[in-house]
Amino acid sequence: MANSIRVAAAQMTSVNDLATNFATCSRLAKEAASAGAKLLCFPENFSYVGSLQGDSIKIAERLDGPIINKYCSLARESNIWLSLGGFQEKGSDEAHLRNTHVLIDDSGNIKTTYSKMHLFDVDVPGGAVYKESSFTEAGNDIVAVDSPFGRLGLTVCYDLRFPEVYQQLRFHQNAQVLLVPAAFTTVTGQAHWEILLRARAIETQCYVIAAAQAGKHNDKRESYGDTLIIDPWGTIVGRLPDRLSTGIAVADIDFSLIDSVRAKMPISMHRKPIEFWKSV
Questions:
Q1: How far is CA 25 from CA 7, 139, 147, 157, in A?
Q2: Does residue 132 carry a catalytic annotation?
Q3: What are the pLDDT digits (tens) for 122-171?
Q4: What is the number of domains present in the chain?
Q5: Does 276 reside within a domain?
Q6: Inter-axis angle of helices 163-171 and 186-204, to 10 degrees?
Q7: Catalytic: which of 38, 157, 194, 222?
Q8: What is the residue range of 229's domain?
Q9: What is the pLDDT of residues 189-200, one digit of tens each?
Q10: What's 233's DSSP letter?
Q11: Pair 240, 229: CB distance under 8 Å
């Protein structure tokens, strides 16, 4: 493995048109490849954001369907790995889908998938009411995989609020880079997005790549944006000039920095099992 390797994270405003979103993703893939990136991470709902409740169910497909096949071809033609941050995969019945993070290599092969574990059932203060579980099946498995970019830990959006997932990825799955594709609301994004991402990087001593949806998708839905790449010391090393434009953030994964941070502050050696005692 090289001492460092370039990665990119996309920021975009997906709409309710598969072809339009694919055209945006294709342009960003070419831009990332031209910048020397070997991995491009797209945000949650990269391929589609519906205007009406139930729209996502209607377009949901299997992983061997035409939507993912197009993105596999895009990865192969662009000679770049793609992290597809949250795809509407068909669920076990007609009323549900799975919010699935799909990782595709530069030959166009699916390397692994992860289904979002934590579903966004929230009444956002000052915002809308969301109930993702009404149409989405939760995943059960934590997923990490080896790659040219180190060992990648896959998550999706609302998982970010559950640090135990990232602790598992780092200390049990040996992750070096954590992928956090998202479509954060404007209210929660402004309050917590950067803080949570930097905390996950610091407490796991991993790089964090957070590709974000940005801006108004339709009259009812808006995302916060602010795509970030953060190093294991919690320093932001990649960011777009503003949090709403479509584009890519680029940074280098420096494996020697991961090793240095972990050697100088060896929290993996200092961690102790915590037992929770029930009061009698």
A1: 15, 26, 22, 19
A2: no
A3: 887 777 788 899 899 999 999 999 999 999 999 999 999 999 999 999 99
A4: 1
A5: no
A6: 30
A7: 157
A8: 4-266
A9: 999 999 999 999
A10: T
A11: no
